[in-house]
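Example 9 (inverse folding). The structure is encoded as follows.
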């Protein structure tokens, strides 16, 4: 079902499968965590996924060295600004999904990955100070769209580390501010969850975690599933919009 979704997305644009890039200049915004959760969720549902670890600190590669990585998932670690564009192209021919984790600074490698993205996800924590950093990432995407003669690069904000129990007014205000300036905000938030941290300590995916060591895995699985489903539907609606514009 997922593979079919990726296939039909690919057919509608080029022959390449969708590339999802996690970007934000803010260190610790939740890029690597959200990227690995999305990748493992898609892979655990049978999709082939290539993750490109474009952060020199190599958080994804370190995770991948631990046991439990899904069989359908590949991690590419050797990337630089000269090779990343072609590596994304190659991966998009082989895998149902390509997911790129970037470093928390603006660099040539970030520009190359974002300009090749079918969807840019900008993770941010829910404070005003964090949101200001997310705005910088949005500006970078908008500038790259200008370089691409106005061709849109679909972009969405993802709130991370939010409380599952309460929804503070301040967070709602930030969300409204993004939306009123035309920025897409994912309905799903990556809540603050022990299980999302734990996969980096133990390796593997949410489904391989030991419930005696990690609390509330079930809620984390539901959260990851909702996140993946929303990403797929966003890719689909963007593909439809692009298709309609071209037709
Ligand atoms: N949803 C979450 N629940 C719990 N902890 C989280 C969540 N998202 C991120 N974290 C924790 O927050 C910290 C920063 O997350 P992460 O490394 O994913 O951010 P990043 O944007 O990739 O950072 P960098 O810019 O340094 O690459 C980590 O300690 C991670 O475990
Ligand atoms: Mg990171």
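The amino acid assigned to each position is listed next.
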């Amino acid at each position: 079902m997922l593979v079919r979704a990726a296939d039909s997305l690919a057919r509608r644009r080029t022959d390449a499968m969708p590339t999802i890039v996690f970007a934000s200049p803010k260190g610790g915004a939740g890029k690597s965590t959200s990227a690995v959760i999305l990748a493992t969720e898609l892979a655990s549902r049978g999709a082939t996924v290539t993750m490109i670890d474009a952060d020199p600190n190599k958080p994804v590669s370190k995770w991948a060295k631990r046991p439990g990585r899904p069989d359908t998932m590949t991690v590419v670690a050797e990337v630089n600004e000269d090779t990343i564009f072609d590596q994304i192209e190659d991966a998009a021919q082989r895998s149902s999904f390509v997911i790129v984790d970037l470093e928390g600074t603006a660099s040539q490698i970030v520009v190359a990955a974002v300009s090749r993205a079918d969807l840019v996800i900008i993770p941010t924590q829910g404070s005003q100070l964090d949101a200001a950093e997310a705005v910088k990432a949005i500006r970078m995407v908008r500038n790259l769209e200008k370089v691409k003669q106005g061709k849109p690069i679909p972009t969405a904000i993802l709130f991370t580390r939010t409380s599952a129990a309460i929804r503070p007014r301040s967070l709602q205000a930030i969300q409204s501010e993004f939306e009123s300036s035309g920025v897409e905000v994912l309905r799903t938030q990556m809540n603050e969850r022990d299980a999302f941290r734990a996969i980096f300590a133990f390796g593997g995916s949410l489904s391989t975690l030991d419930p005696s060591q990690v609390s509330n895995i079930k809620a984390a699985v539901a959260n990851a599933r909702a996140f993946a489903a929303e990403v797929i539907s966003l890719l689909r609606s963007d593909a439809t919009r692009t298709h309609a514009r071209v037709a």
